[in-house]
Amino acid sequence: HKDQVISFEYAALDFNHPENNKYAYIMEGFENDWNNIGNRNFVTYTNLRPGSYKFRVNVSNNDGIKNEEGVTLYLEILPPLWQTMWFRIFMVFLLLSLIYSIYRYRVQHIQRRNRLLLKEAEVHRQIAQAEEEKKHIEKDLRSLSKKLNLNLRKTAEVIRIAVWGNKISPPLFKTMEILGRELTLSRISEYLKIIS
Q1: 24 CB-near residues (< 8 Å, 6+ apart)
Q2: Are 5 and 45 in contact (CB under 8 A)?
Q3: How far apart are CA 173 and CA 169, in angstroms?
Q4: SS3 46
Q5: Would you tell me how many other CB atoms lie within 10 Å of the CB of residue 46?
Q6: Helix (H, G, I), strand (E, B) or coil at 142
Q7: Which positions ≥6 away from 166 have C-beta within 8 Å?
Q8: DSSP-derived secondary structure letter, 66
Q9: Which residues, 6+ apart, have CB-to-CB distance to 162 below 8 Å?
Q10: What is the pLDDT of residues 34-90, one digit of tens each?
Q11: What is the distance between the alpha carbons of residues 49 and 77, in angstroms, rounded to a whole number?
Q12: What's the predicted TM-score (pTM) here?
């Protein structure tokens, strides 16, 4: 396929009067009719397409006797690589592979993005849950603080009476007993469980 020009030279085996030899040729697959060219013994073709051809030459000598069989030359012009069927199949396969690769990359990118969004949503959910737990803990702390303040006031009252007065009245004794129960270790451990 690289050669753009092809030439053929031929000669008849009659040497009595070679100038009277008459030639005819045809390139089957390229031409439909015989070319009668007289005594010229060469032909040139340019830009033959890839394919199979049969070059045939007939000659008639100076007596007019024609060689009916002639000479046949079979010619195969191969196409350039990019015009072969294998190359086209390879290019289609390459194109499909490229499209599939782009598709797979895009799908993986979307899946990766979805996983990140799910993780982000989970982090936001955990933050919201932690905020809610924080509010409950703060509420429990406020409640416990109020109870402690109340109990501290009662304890301070008991200490004041004990320091300033010698007698503890039955209602005061009852107050001390209630205070002792509220400040037991079990109450504090329950609160610690709530916090953790």
Answers
A1: 34, 35, 36, 37, 57, 58, 59
A2: yes
A3: 6
A4: strand
A5: 9
A6: helix
A7: none
A8: B
A9: 168
A10: 998 888 889 999 888 888 999 999 988 777 777 778 889 999 888 888 888 999 999
A11: 7
A12: 0.49
